[in-house]
Amino acid sequence: MKWIIREKTDELKKLVMKEGWYVEDIFQNCAVAFKERNETLAKDVNTNYWDVYTEYLRVVEFSQQLFGMFTPDKRDLRFISGSVIISKILLDIADRLRDIATDISLLTKEPDINQSIAIPDMFKFSQRMLRKSLRIYVDQNLEGSPGVCAQDALMDESHLKFSQEIISLIQDNPRIVKRALMLMDISRGLEEISDYSVQIIEVTNYILTGKHYTCIKDTLKEFSLDVFKSIDEAL
User: Fold this and answer.
1) CA-based angle 134:13:6, to the nearest 5?
2) Cα(16)–Cα(56) distance, integer angstroms
3) Closest to 92 measured CA to CA, from 34, 51, 53
4) Which single residue of 86, 157, 177, 182 has CA 20 to 30 Å from 138?
């Protein structure tokens, strides 16, 4: 019986992987659409989103079948429930990419501004984070998890720096407010996607260890009341 549930959990992992591939495709389309100011490619994101949504529903349905057919042990129970959570995170990423694609479509109708040159690098950085966090889940190997935390801290700094530059730009030239705010929203969206990547490694850590971990700036720590207090005080 144990080997059967192992096969089924591997099938579940493959479903999550497939959803992740769709999300990565959408991510790449967004990056190219922004760089090339391609409105058609940006609009395709909304259509491709439904592939992600369909895969999410498959993950939920398949996990329900597993709970109905088997009595998973603690490790398998964490894997099944954790996989559903990661699947939902991927859907949330796709949702945010749709928002970004909408901004890109609007920006293609506006003159470009110099500050937009920073966005492609943020796309690449956020894409690498997502790819790395998904690899950690697929391999069920926690090596590299702290590195994702460090990357998230750098992404936070990049977004903060970019936002400050945009605010300064608006103050100097109020006529570009609309374009500047859309760029800021794209930067914020990429920063949020990086946070979602962190959530994937936090869930994977729970699957493998049964303990809750969280990223504190550039380090990964086991969650505790003291850690929670330190986060609250930092905010």
Assistant:
1) 135
2) 8
3) 53
4) 157
CA neighbor of 58 nearest in space, from 24, 123, 12: 12
Q: Which residue has the tokens 């996989």?
A: 83
pTM higher than 0.85 for the full model?
A: yes
Q: What is the CATH number of the domain that holds 41?
A: 1.20.58.220
Domain that holds residue 168: 2-234
d(CA 186, CA 76): 38
Contact 99, 125 (CB under 8 A): no
Provide the number of structural domains found in the chain: 1
Tell which residue, 187, 183, 189, 194, has the closest CA to residue 104: 183
Segments in 70-176 forming alpha helices (H): 74-107, 119-139, 145-172
**Residue 219, phi then psi, degrees to nearest 5:** -130, 155
SS3 235: coil
**Per-residue model confidence as pLDDT tens digits over 91-113:** 999 999 999 999 999 999 988 87
169-208: per-residue pLDDT in tens? Answer: 888 888 888 899 999 999 999 999 999 999 999 999 999 9
Amino acid type, 219: T
CB atoms under 10 Å from CB of 158, counted, come to 19
Looking at residue 37, the DSSP 8-state letter turns out to be T
Q: Show the tokens assigned to 221.
A: 């720590």
